[in-house]
Amino acid sequence: MGVEEEFLLVTPEGRPTAVAPTVLRHAALDEEATSAEPGGDLEKEFKREQVETSTHPRTDVRELLDEIRAGRARTSEYARLAGAEIAALATAPQEVESTVVPDRRAQEIRARFAMTARDQLTCGCHVHVEVGDDDEGVRILDHLRRWTPVLLALSANSPAWQGSHSGYASYRSQVWGRWPTAGPTAPFGDAAGYRRVIEELLASGTILDDGMVYFDARLSARYPTVEVRVADVCLDAADAALQAVLVRGLAETALAGGAEPPQPRTELLRAATWRAAHSGLSGDLVSPTTGRPSPAADVVAELLAHVRPALEATGDLEWAERQTATVLLRGNGAIQQQAWRAEGADDDEVVRRAIARTISPH
Questions:
Q1: CATH number at residue 171
Q2: Number of domains, the chain
Q3: Which of 10, 48, 104, 357 lies 20 to 30 angstroms, CA to CA, from 124?
Q4: Radius of gyration (Cα) for the chain, nearest Å?
């Protein structure tokens, strides 16, 4: 399993700043950061006010967490060389006119998708889990689709948008959902079914290439993995590791066999995803097992119970239970941001507090 995280680049005062090219140049000069393993690189994102990190593939959650923290610390060092900081916030709280990176493909996307592209200063957390082949990957995609709203609720970290409180725990997911391929998908059935959907999307002429397949969960175009993309970037590094452990648990559960319950219709899954984005962990979520509203803590407990045998087999159960309890007690990033607001923090102060949490060693 591996984790990709997108971060805002901000000034030390807390304002978004378009210095990604400079940050990436500093990273490119760091020969010690290079590795023959997949992942581990600092990469550009769509906007110059953000960058993306990735871990190497890891089997042990503690090693993965160490690498997530090390990647955040290293990226912070590169950002400081450019006079900036990094913040694990899924949206910037201030009004900001973000700028597209100087890349031909990115500029073409900006021209074609207009305001949807203009507004995409959003930061997510993507989890990769290795699969044996595409058919195995599609079994996992079809199995975990009902659980992606719970992953979103645990990660929700974007309550503010363009200088206003959005009324959502994850407004990033609302902005991201404007892309034509974003969101939950219907079951694919097998690898051939998945490939047909991609081919038909490309044939429609709506998207530029298969890199614009923005499903909540998809087969990676770069690695032999399933990539789950539904989560906001997490304020706390351990919450990102929890996303990885839960996704791997869902993957192992899918491959363990057993009778699959009837698949929910995509319309119902979209509603469950909207509800998770709206209230996060602060209200009811739609239970993936009953389709009815239930307190968020109870729905998270359903997810843990569902993947319990898989977590026991990988030795992750105790850690996952402890970290989940921490998230429910302390709150996701949205709850933490709202608590800072209640203490009197303005937009810039929220970002400054987020900077400290992003690179915290604990």
A1: 3.30.590.20
A2: 1
A3: 104
A4: 19
What is this structure's pTM?
0.97
The pLDDT tens digits along the chain (362 residues) read 999 999 999 999 999 999 999 999 999 998 565 566 677 889 999 999 999 999 999 999 999 999 999 999 999 999 999 999 999 999 999 999 999 999 999 999 999 999 999 999 999 999 999 999 999 999 999 999 999 999 999 999 999 999 999 999 999 999 999 999 999 999 999 999 999 999 999 999 999 999 999 999 999 988 999 999 999 999 999 999 999 999 999 999 999 988 888 999 999 999 999 999 999 999 999 999 999 999 999 999 999 999 999 999 999 999 999 999 999 999 999 999 999 999 999 999 999 999 999 999 88
Tokens of 210: 């298969």
Q: What share of the chain is helix, strand, coil (3-state, %, to 5)?
A: 50, 15, 35
Which residue carries 């990176």 as its tokens? 101
Q: Which amino acid is at 90?
A: A
The residue segments making up the domain with residue 201 are 2-358
Q: Taking the CB of residue 198, how many other CB atoms lie within 10 A of it?
A: 18
* Cβ proximity of 9 and 20 under 8 Å: yes
Instruction: Return the structure tokens found at 189.
Output: 């059935």
What is the number of other CB atoms lying within 10 angstroms of the CB of residue 34?
Answer: 11
**Residue 290 CB burial class (10 angstroms; 0-12, 13-18, ≥19):** exposed
